[in-house]
Amino acid sequence: MSNEMVSHAQREPALLGQTVVVIGGSAGIGLETARRARAEGAGVILSARNSERLQHAANEIGALRTAAFDANDPAAVESFFHDLPSPIDHVMVTGPGPHYRPVMEVEFEQARIAVSEHILVALWVARNAVHKVRPGGTLLFMGGTFGRRPRRGFALVSAVTAAMPAFVAGLALDLAPVRVNLIAAGFVDTPLSASLLGDDLEARRDELRATLPIQRVVGPRDVAALAIHIMMNETLTGATYDIDGGQQLVGS
Question: Where residue 80 falls among pLDDT bands split at 50, 70, 90?
Answer without folding.
Answer: very high
